[in-house]
Amino acid sequence: MRLSLKSSDESKALIILLASAFLFSLMGAFMKLSSRDVPSTQLIFYRSTFQGVIVVLGMLFVTEPDNNDDGTNVSSLNTATITRTRLIQYPLGRPKHRSVIIARGFIGGFAFLNYFYALKVLPLGDANTLFSLRPIITIFLARIILGENIVFLNLMAALSSLVGAYLITGSNSNVDNGNPDNDSDTRLGYIAAIVGSVAGSAVLVLTRKAGIAVHTLQLIFSWAIFSIAFSFCVGHSSVGINIEESWHMPHSKEIWGYISGMVIFGSLSHFMMNHAARIAPAGLSAIVRSSNIMWAYLLEIVVFHQVPTANTVIGVILISLSLILIAATKLKEVKGASDSGLVLDMRAAHCNENLADERTPILSPSFDTLKCVPHDDSENATHKNTLPLRL
């Protein structure tokens, strides 16, 4: 069966993605306001615990087909023979995929530690821009781990990103020269942002490796578990206390309000991203999601009264152009697949319409999953020639 998406549905999905990008930046602003009184590790604990509880509640109701544990195409199976299991019985996935899910959660938790610390000590726009390097870095990690090809436009995007990142980090590295402590925090913040971006790219590659046999809720659950563990251990270690401070109860209702905004807007942005990215075109999705850079700098100016330097503006433009180049290559891949008689498969479109499969493509806050599968009207269509398209 062929998948047809109405342009109105795609437009609505793009609007949701735009709103999601704004909410993600808003989460960063609330996190930054909260961090004036609370260590970043403690904020990670609140954020991951809140979303983890939501995920567990979802796992109590969402089911998956037992017949698909080995990656078998459920469309070739008789619906009467399919039994279903609640996800809560396998929160970290089936044994075959568990190692990838655990690795994804481990690296994702580490990336979150770096991201939140960078948000605390860096200008909001700078932290968001440097974390937007993930799609660029993913291209090279995917080449090493998955053997995917690198095209010329990808190399141009990588060069543009490197120059942009250098301008952003260099233009602000000495803003607090009068205060050695603040200057040290700033340098560490830029290092954390770049390290976190590399770790985030590894998460994307591991998610791609997991494939559609792993449910999105299982990946988020793994992330939540490791984020909670890392934040607690680092936050109570001598290193964490020396870098920031000891954990303590927030001192005012105002801080609690900021924390509430952080966990609510962050979780809402995450789920909106996962929903809309299944529908919106891959290339346009990348461009729309990169709007979080614009929102972050607007919030930086309006809320924190920090005006970016000229070098920062140039760096942001270069990184934004690199993301557009990456999006252009994805649009070209999708068009090429369409011209070759392939069809986009989102949310198991290859399955029979009367099979209510709740399994969704694997997604993350920063990218979407699309597949191109050969058009085959028979019940024996398989994933053999599946072509993953990711950002």
Report the end-to-end length measured between terminal Cα atoms. Answer: 26 Å
Q: Specify Rg, calculated over alpha carbons.
A: 21 Å
Q: What is the topology, as strand order, of the major beta sheet?
A: 3-4-5
Q: Give me the strand/helix succession.
A: HHEEHHHHHHHHHHHEEE
Q: How many separate helices?
A: 13
**Low-pLDDT residue spans:** 1-5, 174-178, 341-391
Number of strand segments: 5
Question: Would you tell me the structural class of the helices and strands?
Answer: mainly alpha
Task: Give the strand content.
Answer: 5-15%
Round the mean pLDDT to the nearest integer and report it: 76
Helix content: 55-70%
**So what's the overall shape?**
globular
Largest sheet: 3 strands, antiparallel
What's the arrangement of secondary structure elements?
Layout: H1 7-34, H2 40-59, E1 63-65, E2 84-86, H3 95-121, H4 124-131, H5 134-145, H6 152-172, H7 180-210, H8 216-235, H9 238-243, H10 253-276, H11 282-289, H12 292-302, H13 310-339, E3 342-345, E4 369-374, E5 387-390
Antiparallel strand pairs: 1-2, 3-4, 4-5
Helix pairs in contact: 1-3, 1-10, 1-11, 1-12, 2-3, 2-8, 2-10, 3-4, 3-7, 3-8, 4-12, 5-7, 6-13, 11-13
